[in-house]
Design a protein that fits this description.
257 residues, mainly alpha, two-stranded antiparallel sheet
């Protein structure tokens, strides 16, 4: 319901105190959730206001979707759920924004960005589940914004490809703005090699992931086959015992002299 001015001021005092306490203990070994619980408890002590807080996580992902785009999760009431939401979206902090006038593909390979886009959709779906909400419409919104920025990404990709190809040429054949002196040559060569290495590592990681899945599937099939054979062996033994019992009882009935 609506709050009066006195209650609103009490809320403001409490939340300001919580913010200060969180900043004071930011570098301590306890988790974010523990620090927040402690700050809320100590700040609300002695206050008449009964806190009914709701939490949400805002995470900028301009590098993945579109500049200034922010993922805004549904509200949750518990600090525990807030912690889960933060952990889900924390890996995407590195994609918050693109450095000024810099091509995103110089920071991340196209393969890496495509993989991160897929992981973001999974994380959003999981976050909405934690909040007890349906993520269908929000994911549709994400995809619509992603598609709307596709032409800008394509231009950046083409620029990166042209620059990448130009860096393969001899220095004197490159565009004038991309020519380097002797002292910069080695630095750019290292940067190029690192970029190529990142792409290769991403490919190897995906290949290893596929191999692990195949190995797990093969092991699961072998275990199922082993269990099936054990069941068949038990059935055969049971059938053998049942066939053997009549003959044993017949021999027991013969009078022995």
């Amino acid at each position: 319901g609506r709050l009066d001015l006195q209650t609103a001021l009490e809320y403001l005092v409490i939340l300001t105190s919580v913010k200060q306490k969180m900043q004071e203990v930011a570098n301590k070994g306890s988790t974010f959730e523990e620090r927040l619980q402690e700050a809320l408890a100590s700040s609300a002590k002695g206050q008449r206001a009964d806190l009914d807080l709701r939490f949400s996580v805002l995470q900028a992902v301009g590098s993945l979707i579109a500049p200034s785009f922010v993922v805004h999760t549904p509200m949750v009431r518990s600090v525990e759920h807030l912690g889960k939401l933060r952990k889900l979206l924390e890996p995407f902090r590195q994609y918050a924004q693109i450095p000024h006038r810099q091509c995103i593909f110089w920071l991340y390979s196209p393969v890496h960005l495509q993989d991160a886009w897929g992981r973001l959709q999974v994380a959003v779906s999981e976050a909405w589940k934690i909040a007890g909400a349906d993520s269908t419409k929000y994911i549709q919104k994400l995809r619509a914004c992603y598609e709307a920025a596709a032409s800008a990404r394509q231009r950046q990709l083409q620029l990166w490809e042209r620059m990448h190809m130009a860096m393969q040429d001899r220095n004197r054949y490159r565009p004038r703005r991309m020519r380097v002196g002797g002292s910069q040559k080695s630095t750019n060569l290292v940067t190029l090699k690192l970029s190529t290495l990142k792409t290769l590592l991403a490919r190897w990681e995906r290949a290893l992931h596929r191999q692990r899945k195949k190995h797990q599937e093969k092991r699961r099939r072998l275990e199922n086959l082993k269990r099936k054979r054990l069941r068949e062996e038990q059935i055969r033994r049971e059938a053998f015992r049942k066939r053997k019992r009549p003959s044993e009882s017949f021999m027991d009935d013969i009078p022995w002299i």
